[in-house]
Amino acid sequence: MKARLLSVAVMLTGVTLGLMGAVENVAVINGFPVITADPATASDWYDTEVMYNLYSPLVYPSPDGGVRPHLAVSWEAVGGDLTHWRFNLRQGVKFHSGNTLTAEDVAFSMTRFITMGRGNSGPLGQVTAVVVDTYTVDFVLDKPSAIFPETLALFFPVEKNLVLANIKKPGPYGDLGDYGEEWLGTHDAGTGPYMMTSHIPGQRLDATRFLDYFEGWSNEGWGPDEVPIERLVFIMETDYTTLMTLLRAGMLDLEINGGWTLPQLREIQEDNRLRLSFCWAQNVTVWMNSKVPPTDDEHFRKAILYAFDYESILGPWAEFGNGETGIILPNMPGYVPIEPQPRKQDLERARQELALSKYAANLRDVKVTFHFCGGLDFEEEVGLQLQADMAQLGVRVEVAGPPWPQYSASCSAPETTPNLTIFLFAPQAFPPHDYYLYSMFSASGLGWIFSAHWYFEDPEIAHLLDETRAEPDPGRRMDIYRQLQPLIAAHSLAFYPYQKPTLFAHQAYIVGPKESIAFVGPSENMHNWRINLKLKQELRG
Q1: Predicted TM-score of the model (pTM)
Q2: Fold of 281-500
Q3: For the chain, which end, N or C, has fewer CB atoms within 10 Å of the first or last residue's CB respectively?
């Protein structure tokens, strides 16, 4: 622990020195090894957090649902089949280079996004971008989508000429070499409120305020001593014991994942120098790999659902708002409760399901692997609870917590993905219903880690998922979402121990977010926060 803290202190040299004199206008934020800073390949929670600071999406999620104008000021479907959309761009938006955003940049960025086929490009399908004029761009889709504008909340245009000037050859994209991917890993080509000054992958990313940000830096609605944050420092630290020490020592200003243990949350509550800010709820989800034994058997998967002691794992967390959940969050319209109902352990039903499985005759020889992300103790607690529950049925569960790079890499193919993998799913793509259903359960969904756990396809489910996008009537679309949830649940592809609130821990002098948007990214956009330097000076003595 001492060695870890020393390495972090050395990494923060130049920031922590401010503790001995005048306070600095800087926010130190925890990130996750390794942040992917290229908008075409970024996909994880921390990637999205960084994207919303360095780049601007075409549309912006609204606190009341839906999206609002951002880089695009308006849009409309062209024709009646919802495969052709026209977007009119905001004029006068500057890139960090000082050059002006045009339709050429947006079209190039979309073509690059779809061609590379990584990151959050999966939900868009195949898209052809066409420049209409300087500030108008058309998108032609391979499938009808009534919600296409909303899915662009994770599309971040880059500066075309700057990226082209920094491609590396040879590369996988022919004449375009690596399409600028290597350069964009340590530089930015965005229009966001902050601009990257340096990035050492796996260690630290620094950014400074972009004074020409098109939304401006008005202090309207903020307190008299609350001013824009000048510098951001994202440190790559995921161990929550270390993060707590850094937070208490004033070396961490904002923690945005919410992976605290119960004792840590209570400790933060009792410290008048610290604050907890609620942003949104998120699902704790355990995926079950349907392609490897023994979770390739549906009855075996159902046995896990009924064996788990939901009340034991949920009880201690109730004071912080944790509760029952399902495929979508209970506070979302159209939520349908799924089995088991009520959320209670039912060992007798679990035994019945095991008896129906093809592994019934040799349960002693069966082993189930459960992986959690190393450093997240609350995820490990779920695994240990399941281990104890399944032991009562004579089934061995092996619980392991590899570090994130190793953990996520193992989920790249059915044969290497563990039987059970636990994740914390906040609304990380937009709109939320599409994220929790289409993006996670469609074969053409995100195409990233979410589709790497259950490896299961059902023609009826696939058809209905496509219908949700083609249906222009929101009421009818909601009916399909209700129809889908029990169909998906019937296959027991995952179980949901509980939902938990996202509680950002931060120093009392870090103020925000000004508006709460139930979506990863906007809430961590530091244009949405301020710093009170007077209070910081007082608290630092």
Answers
A1: 0.84
A2: Dipeptide-binding Protein; domain 3 (3.10.105)
A3: C
